[in-house]
UniProtKB/TrEMBL annotation:
Pfam families: DUF247. InterPro entries: DUF247_pln. This is Uncharacterized protein. It comes from Xanthoceras sorbifolium.
Length: 437
């Protein structure tokens, strides 16, 4: 035994009885906490927003009307929607011969898997948890059903007679904290379909309902709507589905950059001064930004209402995923558009859809806030390198300067051409005069 270990053992032997009792009590308490820990699971996919991010965007993440799942369950300001959940459950049961007890048993049997989907221990008892999952799941199913098929809406439905309520609920449904797993929605509607009273659920699948519900968002974010149904089976919940639809199909990183830093791309203004042309990207993914033969293609970005959705995807990606596509897109955008002048150039070229350049540049900067850079794993390394190389070429800058300052209008072109012709004539006359001598 070493001298240090021997001294440690001697100190332990000299502890008096009272202290020993305290230590044993502390040991028992800690071991009890070990046993109380909820086991970690690979099913975990629903998280609470980090405090730092929430504080800087508090209003953005505040739920408007409805809690979905346990993280905001029981909040006083959301209680008004609980009555609607019960009404929707009653109408849901009227469409199937599966009774309420069977649905409760069905969820009870999946309780452990459902709890495992949350990154924190849910304090609700089993009975309250099962009730909450049933009410929230059926509310989503019925809301999406009514959204897609308005003939299902009853005359007493107070949600669908007020468009503002639909808009607020849509916001809450996409919130990263306000989620329940897709699998339970799919399973419940499948169970209801096995013994239908009418044909309301015939041919109705969650993937189709969510596709219809997401149609406006797909247009807003330049997403091919077919990607909703294609990615539904693999998605865990709404933010995960949106992430899968936004991220590029090609998941390969540019590994040519062996340095410990990533290349910072020039700003849009700097690119313009080097003669780079800007064009609206023709590809069906927001993150597919390309540079080829002096033209930078960026998919259209509609500033209005996209901030909330893109930030939700970024937060979920940071908490759950190994990939950094949304994070890297946000960083790239904030570096390209660092001033209102940068934004104005993109607005003029139809890439950004927004009337105010100041607001557009602010949006790009805020989107990139708290972005994290993983060295050698930046998705746009190759793009940034190519843009820098183009800007460093003196020929490109000279040509752009000539075009922008001397050939920017027809009259300017005529004036420059006339001046050149006059210069050539003068030079010719001078040469002829010298020869004549």
């Amino acid at each position: 035994m070493s001298l240090h270990a021997a001294n440690g053992q001697k100190e332990m032997d000299t502890i008096d009885d009272n202290v020993s009792i305290e230590i044993k009590s502390l040991e028992t308490s800690l071991r009890g906490k070990f046993e109380a820990l909820y086991p970690l699971s690979s099913d975990c996919c629903i998280y609470r927003i980090p405090k730092k991010i929430r504080q800087s965007n508090e209003g953005l993440f505040t739920l408007y009307l409805v809690s979905i799942g346990p993280l905001h369950h029981g909040r006083e300001e959301l209680q008004a929607m609980e009555e609607h959940k019960i009404r929707y459950l009653q109408q849901f049961l009227q469409r199937t011969q599966i009774n309420l007890k069977d649905f409760l048993i069905f969820i009870k049997n999946k309780e452990e898997r459902l709890r495992n989907c949350y990154a924190e221990t849910i304090p609700l008892g089993s009975q309250d948890f099962v009730e909450m999952i049933l009410l929230d799941s059926v509310f989503l199913i019925e809301f999406l059903l009514r959204y897609s098929f308005r003939n299902v809406v009853t005359s007493g439905d107070r949600i669908f007679v007020k468009p503002s309520l639909i808009k607020d609920i849509r916001h809450d449904i996409w919130s990263v904290e306000n989620q329940i797993p897709f699998f339970i929605l799919e399973d419940l509607i499948e169970l209801a379909r096995t013994r239908m009273i009418d044909e309301c659920y015939e041919g109705v699948f969650m993937s189709k309902l969510i596709s219809e519900f997401s149609s406006g968002l797909c247009e807003l974010l330049s997403i091919d709507r077919s990607l909703i149904e294609i990615n539904f089976s693999e998605a865990k919940h709404f933010p995960d589905l949106l992430k899968r639809c936004i991220e590029p199909p090609d998941h390969e990183l540019d590994t040519r950059n062996e340095s410990i830093y990533y290349p910072t791309p020039p700003t849009i203004t700097e690119l313009h001064q080097a003669g780079v042309k800007f064009r609206v990207g023709s590809h069906n993914t927001l993150l597919d930004i390309r540079f080829d033969k002096g033209t930078l293609e960026i998919p259209k970005l509609r500033i209005k209402n996209v901030w909330f959705y893109l930030l939700n995807v970024r937060i979920f990606e940071g908490l759950h995923c190994k990939t950094n596509y949304m994070n890297d897109y946000a960083l790239l955008l904030s570096l390209l558009v660092s001033s209102p002048k940068d934004a104005e150039l993109l607005i003029q070229n139809g890439i950004i859809e927004n009337k105010e350049s100041v607001a557009a540049s602010t949006f790009c900067q805020q989107l990139g806030n708290n972005g994290r850079m993983k060295y050698k794993k930046f998705y746009y390394t190759g793009l940034a390198r190519d843009l820098n190389a183009y800007c460093k070429s003196p020929w490109h800058k000279w040509k752009a300067n000539l075009k922008q300052n001397y050939f920017n209008t027809p009259w300017a072109s005529i004036s420059v051409s006339a001046a050149v012709i006059l210069l050539l004539l003068t030079l010719t006359q001078t040469v002829c005069s010298i020869i004549a001598l």
